[in-house]
Amino acid sequence: MTDIQQVVPVPRETAGRFRAYGPRHLDMLARRARLGDADTLAIRAVATVLPFRTNSYVVDELIDWDAAPDDPIYRLVFPQPDMLPRQDVDLMAGLLSEGAPQPRIRAAAHEIRMRLNPHPAGQLVLNAPILDGSSLLGLQHKYPETVLFFPKQGQTCHAYCAYCFRWAQFVDEPDLKMATDHIDTLVAYLRRHREVTSVLITGGDPMIMSAAVLRRYIEPLLDPSLDHLESIRIGTKSLGYWPQRYVTDPDADDTLRLFGEVTLAGRTLAVMAHYSHPRELDPPAAADAIRRIRDTGAVIRTQAPLIRSINDEPATWMSLWRSQVRAGMVPYYMFVERDTGPQDYFAVPLARAHEIFRDAYAGVSGLCRSVRGPSMSATPGKVCVDGVADIAGIRVFVLRMLQARDPALVGRPFFARFDPCAKWLTDLVPAFADRFPFDPAVPAVPCIPAASYESAPSDLSGLWNPGELAPAS
């Protein structure tokens, strides 16, 4: 689209009305899934600890209720009884059954949440940017080129994924939330840090915000003084969970005009679309939303984690990537389920994750092979499992840093001993070396435990730190 006024309006009489469903609707929705009383109580117990939210579009258009509770979209958004340890589910179910007072329920839920690693990869400590000696809330600066921005009004979603690694943003724990409404602080930081070429607006889901609010955050980033800023990214699940946001919502046209202004200003606007399953691409509204976004000049890149019982088959990913390319989108990442929340329930072992990626990758055209993975967004950076090999009689994982706190490590291969049960980087031990490339060197210690950098982030003295960069003159 060369003229931002060329947005073609969609008749509003076709609009569906957004309706959210939360924990108080679980009993009604559980009956639709034909769950018994015990299972219903169990999912209500899980929903007191982990967030639950879905909406009328997901419920009416995406879930196959004849297949529930085994339907993948149902499992994508609804709590499962086994997402928490049995003793925790029993505890919360007991409190709900006896009508315990809310302060007691909240206290028990808090204790369980604190065992679930609510903020993985040191994001509250290692990623905190500094400006004039003060730590900036609602921003993260993990890699030199990219800053993450968490707008205050965008810290919810149209629906929550049951496996979401940002689940701590959505529960009643104010100390766990990352958010800010100070766009001026972001702009000031960017002026000091001209190494930053990309801003990722994330959440939650920024596309929960109205066009007017979104404009307040995006317009300042188009200032000519920020000419080092090459791209603005928006991380969103809205294309899967509420495509009407770009088609029939009252401010859909205004939103698309804003997208067009970004591209006309010479910035790349990348919509980082989260698609967990190919069925999210089936409804006509989904196709309309994709087409209208692409007409603004924005690019849509797609990503999702590999999740047990939802998309853990090669055929699912082949279908997903092919459908995305057919619609003009760019497959970007297959992630590994992160080490937070219900990881034990949803994670796929790294060995199996590599097999799924390899077999899916082998069955698609070169246009789909822009995708990378399986990738772990871990403390030192994005670690890709490139393969499994036998070297000098030792079976190993072949690993590579796709991104790293220390830019010198990007693209560098390294090896870990093969472990068929390993699900995360901290489950691995080095092969052919006494430590991983990102581990701190400790004299006289033959081998650093693989989990050392997770448990002691303050020891990561050799890694890039945003607070250490001298301000630009």
Question: Major beta sheet, specifics?
Answer: 11 strands, mixed
What is the percent of helical residues? Answer: 25-40%
Series of secondary-structure elements, N-terminal to C-terminal: EHHEHHHHEEEEHEHEHHEHEHEHHEEEEH
Number of strands: 15
Q: What's the overall average pLDDT, rounded?
A: 89
Q: What is the CA-based Rg, rounded?
A: 22 Å
Query: What's the N-to-C terminus distance?
Result: 38 Å
Overall shape: it is globular
What is the structural class? alpha/beta
Number of helices: 15
Unreliable spans are 1-5, 10-15, 444-464, 467-473
Strand portion, in percent? 15-25%
What do you see in this structure?
With 473 residues, the protein is an alpha/beta fold. It has a domain of 110 residues. The strands form three sheets. The chain has an eleven-stranded mixed β-sheet. It has a two-stranded antiparallel ribbon with strand order 1-2. Strands 3-4 form a two-stranded antiparallel sheet. Helix 12 links the parallel strand 10 and strand 11. The longest helix is centred in the middle third of the chain and has 13 residues. The radius of gyration is 22 Å and the shape is globular. The N terminus and C terminus are likely disordered.
SSE topology sketch:
Elements: E1 20-21, H1 26-32, H2 37-47, E2 54-55, H3 56-62, H4 72-77, H5 86-97, H6 102-113, E3 130-131, E4 134-135, E5 139-143, E6 146-149, H7 183-192, E7 198-201, H8 211-218, E8 231-236, H9 238-241, H10 252-264, E9 268-274, H11 284-295, E10 299-306, H12 314-326, E11 330-336, H13 343-346, H14 350-362, E12 372-377, E13 381-391, E14 394-404, E15 413-417, H15 452-455
Parallel strand pairs: 6-7, 7-8, 8-9, 9-10, 10-11, 11-12
Antiparallel strand pairs: 1-2, 3-4, 5-6, 12-13, 13-14, 14-15
Helix pairs in contact: 1-2, 2-5, 5-6, 8-10, 12-14
